[in-house]
Design a protein that fits this description.
mainly alpha; Alpha-lytic protease prodomain-like; three-stranded mixed sheet; two-stranded antiparallel sheet; 10% strand; Cation_efflux_TMD_sf; monoatomic cation transmembrane transporter activity
């Protein structure tokens, strides 16, 4: 496999543009959050998650650079699976940061740390730092809402789990912003635990997504059956292709694995046909570019 199928070239290019926009916008958010976070655990957790949100974007761009390349002597099967590797990298990073943020927030709760948000002087006027924190968090909400909304449909059309993970990360970003605002307001009202509790909620959300993505990414790298975009369940598209192939070759055993955004099918127990039907006949409503390779393994002989 080499190159990007013509059916998804436009979406693939659009996905790359969205990721470049993500790097640009999230960099400005990280800068704003850094200069306003103070000692707030919720703000620190939000900053770490915003920084983490750069990882899926960068891995998508790196994978997108290699995937279209032609096979080489060192990589004779091409680079389609670089997308699977990028997905695992993003999932592991997500999980590790979730663990770190959870430890930081839980430690603060157990130690009963009382964070303070002091006033600062701006142009000769004393202003509560919490207002600047809230303004920064509001700003951190807007770009992720827009970018995540645009990425989800593109990810589904591309069958790209890295881009899908990034879209979910953008959703977590704006939810983190809202949770952080609650934590800052809680501090202002005298509830010392609100800030750390908000940080812990953020961490648990990150951790849940990370563990789920690691399961799916591991199955993909271990030649498991294709999984759904948002769960470890076997995808409906894979079940459709298996059913169609068994209709064409009754009595056969069909094995299907995922390679990046593509599916590889092996039909066992039948002789290779003189003419293989078009992939569109085997995929039904599933886009035919998804079935990248179809091979046959004849029945084993009974020779002693």
């Amino acid at each position: 496999m080499s190159g990007i199928p013509a059916a998804i070239e436009v979406d693939f290019a659009y996905g790359r543009r969205l990721e470049w926009w993500t790097l640009a916008w999230m960099s400005t958010i990280i800068a704003v959050m850094y200069f306003t976070m103070g000692a707030s655990k919720a703000m620190q957790s939000a900053l770490i998650e915003d920084f983490l949100s750069l990882v899926p974007a960068m891995t998508f761009l790196v994978a997108g650079h290699f995937e279209p390349k032609k096979p080489t002597s060192r990589f004779p099967f091409g680079f389609a699976r670089v997308n699977s590797l990028a997905f695992l990298v993003a999932a592991v990073a997500l999980t590790l940061v979730g663990l770190f943020v959870a430890w930081e927030a839980a430690s603060a709760l157990l130690a009963q740390e009382h964070p303070t948000v002091p006033p600062i002087e701006i142009f000769g006027q004393r202003v509560w730092l919490g207002w600047l924190m809230i303004a920064a968090l509001v700003y951190s909400i807007v770009p992720p809402v827009i970018l995540g909304h645009r990425k989800l449909p593109v990810a589904r059309r591309l069958r790209d789990k890295v881009l899908h993970t990034d879209a979910l990360m953008q959703k977590a970003d704006w939810q983190t912003g809202l949770t952080g605002i609650v934590g800052i307001v809680g501090i202002g009202m005298g509830y010392w635990w609100a800030d750390s509790a908000a940080g812990l909620l953020i961490a648990l959300s990150i951790l849940k997504d990370g563990i789920s993505n690691i399961r799916t990414a591991s199955a993909e790298l271990l030649d498991g059956a294709p999984r759904e975009m948002d769960s470890a369940a076997i995808s409906h598209e894979a079940e459709t292709v298996i059913a169609k192939a068994q209709e064409c070759w009754p009595g056969s055993t069909v094995r299907l694995r995922e390679s990046g955004r593509y599916m590889i099918a092996v039909v066992e127990g039948v002789e290779p046909p003189a003419q293989i039907p078009p992939h569109g006949e085997l995929t039904g409503k599933v886009p035919d570019w998804r079935l990248a390779r179809l091979t046959f393994e004849p029945p084993q002989s009974d020779e002693a």
